[in-house]
Amino acid sequence: MKRKPNIAVVGATGVVGSTFLKVLEERDFPFENIYMMASAKSAGKTVKFKGKDYVVEELTEHSFDKPIDIALFSAGGSTSAKFAPIAASKGVTVVDNSSQWRMYEDVPLVVPEVNPEDIAWNKGIIANPNCSTIQAMVALKPLQDKYGIKRVVYSTYQAVSGSGVKGINDLKNGLEGNNEDLQAYAHPIAGNCLPHIDVFLDNGYTKEEMKMINETHKILHDDDIKVTATTVRVPVFDSHSESINIELEKPFELEDVVECFRQFPGLIVQDDVENNVYPLALDAAGTDEVYVGRIRRDYSVENGINIWVVADNIRKGAATNAVQIAEKLLEQLPD
Ligand code: NAP
Questions:
Q1: Per-residue pLDDT for 67 more than 80?
Q2: Is 217 a catalytic residue?
Q3: Residue 175 to residues 15, 115, 284: CA-CA distances in angstroms?
């Protein structure tokens, strides 16, 4: 039997970090020692894991001097930029949730149901894709395999938990009538839709939109797929919803598309419009799967299809996907 790994959770006090702990516990992830790390602000606080209190330690250059096999990072891009290479240089395999390393050529960007083979060539850092990209990939991969993909148009409806504690606070405060002290957004989110996620770039897109475009190419290993995106923050606490319009390379029968979705791991078809059944953010919240519905032909183009894809952005979009990557790493752990 393989030995149990020592693991570190970096950002253990955050929205994603605390979900890492939940998911590790639920999936009974094996470990010898677990270390909880965050900023100096949280050092000395405790977090609960498997019924036990763990003291949070400040992340420093020396945090990885002790033997650690796998570190799950969710502490922002600048923390990952500084500390992931330090961890990797000490033999730790980092699974990083920030956007910092995703587009580096020597860093695999992995959705375990889609491109698990890329884990093998990691050099110490594996990137978890953007939350909105992850759920889209699970729906697109079976289509790519069976029909080939020519073009994708993403329109997203993203939950405030994707902005961490500050985003959740803005919606909670707004629902109570306080839209004054905004922490995450440029405008009130309660009763609003903000076509603005992350910063605007010179090309007119937001960084979130470009993440979806670039990450789709990298994960599906096909730069020829034409991709565009509009990403929108909506007043929903948990789960991102996405309308995805796809032009396939080959003709298809709708029943065959539904069947190939049904066969794909981690993807659940919810498509019975006569009974008002389609994926919903409220239903997806707290689960690890990706849901697809409203599967219908796009009659405006040849081989076009529209789908509606929903997943819990903190679980499959962040923590669960990273833990699934870590589970694959267990197989490679030296005895
Ligand atoms: P969050 O709730 O604000 O939590 C941030 C965490 O990072 C906290 O534990 C914080 O510790 C820690 N941290 C901040 N600066 C640090 C430093 N200098 N050294 C060590 N730890 C530090 O944010 P979040 O939503 O969990 O997001 C965390 C990361 O995951 C971000 O990179 C985000 O882009 C990424 N991500 C988020 C989502 C999402 O849907 N929320 C999805 C995918 C990826 P303190 O408590 O000590 O401040």
A1: yes
A2: no
A3: 20, 40, 22
